[in-house]
Design brief:
The chain has helices at residues 3-12, 29-44, 77-86, 105-109, 140-150, 159-172, 183-194, 199-207, 212-223, 240-245, 293-300, 318-328, 333-337; strands spanning 18-22, 48-53, 71-72, 89-93, 114-119, 130-133, 226-228, 233-238, 268-275, 280-287, 304-305, 309-314. By secondary structure, it is an alpha/beta fold. The chain folds into 2 domains: 3-207, inorganic pyrophosphatase (n-terminal core) (Alpha-Beta Complex), CATH 3.90.1640.10; 212-337, Diaminopimelate Epimerase, Chain A, domain 1, CATH 3.10.310.30.
Length: 338
């Protein structure tokens, strides 16, 4: 965070405030980990802080310290609106455009609070008075760690906070294998372990607690995989009927898209997942090397994210969505084959 915004934040937090902390819709490990770590930090420093999530989050994240205190905007609508309307400060974490919070966007746009953005995605919008935006960071959780240090409170990180921050870094870096993982990321993680983060236990809780239905769904996804060697691309489709057949629970498809990148010669992997309730196909894009899925998602599928990991959506049916996607690939053939 630049010095001007850091000093403004220090002044803002110099007396007790009512604070709302907001992750993006369908929050992942980084969104939940960063909001919980910040919630612990602010609460421990005398502020009245509340996390309001746009909707539910995966069961494999609900062990995290403080997770049971998170308000669900869909289920606890009245209480959530009160928290936002009465807030002096609204922190938004792990997203940089208010469109990423779904139905909450309207109430946030009308809120009178001072907005503080902490995020590592590309092309931030300008809704926040105080911004900490850094696309070089591995995760928003790493940014929260740095921010606490910049606030001269590095010694205030408790074991609960360390576990939350570690979780977000681990999940957003694919267990430290993605290109955004830097030497400094490892130094942060080492310090978190010194402060009480239980890396082995966290990994077990996130990755080693499969249900039979999730493994059957993974089998279905892999069976549906289409490999386009000419374009170094692999894609997976999952229909709503297939999700229902295998008793899909939120978070069950986490990581499925990455299987395409394990194939020799594949540079671009995509998964298309139907959400019949919203009338869309949710799309996840992954790549290796310098092929920017952020640019691809923004240009063609109303999305965005990072160079090697992004999301998007399609309101067309699956046949038309796939036809559009495959018709685009020849335009990127040289990039994908380089």
């Amino acid at each position: 965070m630049n010095l001007e915004h850091l000093n403004a934040l220090k002044k803002l937090l110099s007396s007790p405030k009512k604070i709302a902390i907001i992750p993006h819709k369908n929050p992942d490990g980084d969104a939940i980990g960063s909001t919980l770590a910040l919630w612990h930090y602010l609460s421990n420093n005398g502020h009245s802080a509340t996390i309001v999530a746009p909707n539910d989050f995966p069961k494999f994240l609900k062990w995290m310290p403080g997770a049971q205190q998170i308000l669900n905007f869909e289920r606890e609508n009245s209480q959530s609106k009160t928290v936002i309307n009465e807030a002096d400060i609204v922190f938004t974490l792990d997203f940089n455009h208010l469109g990423r919070v779904g139905q909450m966007s309207e109430i946030l746009e009308s809120a009178q609070a001072t907005f503080v953005m902490v995020d590592h995605h590309q092309e931030p919008s300008d809704y926040a008075s105080i911004m900490y935006s850094d696309v070089s960071m591995s995760s928003t959780c790493e940014m929260v760690y740095v921010l606490i240090n910049q606030l001269d409170d590095e010694n205030s990180i408790t074991p609960d906070m360390a576990n939350c921050i570690y979780t977000g870094i681990m999940t957003d870096t694919g267990s430290f294998k993605f290109a955004a993982t830097t030497s400094n990321t490892h130094r942060v993680v080492a310090d978190l372990m010194d402060k009480g983060a239980e890396g082995t236990e966290i990994h077990h809780r996130i990755y080693d607690t499969n249900s039979p239905s999730r493994l059957h769904l993974l089998g279905c996804a892999l069976k549906n995989m289409v490999i386009l060697n000419e374009y170094a691309t692999a894609y997976i489709t999952l229909s709503q009927d297939e999700l229902d057949k295998y008793n899909y629970q939120k978070g069950d498809t986490e990581g499925f898209v990455n299987y395409g990148l394990t194939l020799d010669g594949i540079k671009f992997a995509v998964i298309f997942i139907e959400n019949k309730e919203e009338g869309i196909f949710k799309i996840s894009f992954r790549s290796v090397g310098d092929f920017s899925v952020n640019d691809f998602a923004r240009k063609h599928f109303n999305g965005g994210g990072h160079t090697n990991a992004a999301g998007g959506r399609s309101e067309d049916n699956i046949a038309d969505t796939i036809a559009k996607f495959t018709a685009l690939l020849p335009l990127y053939k040289n990039q994908l084959q380089s």
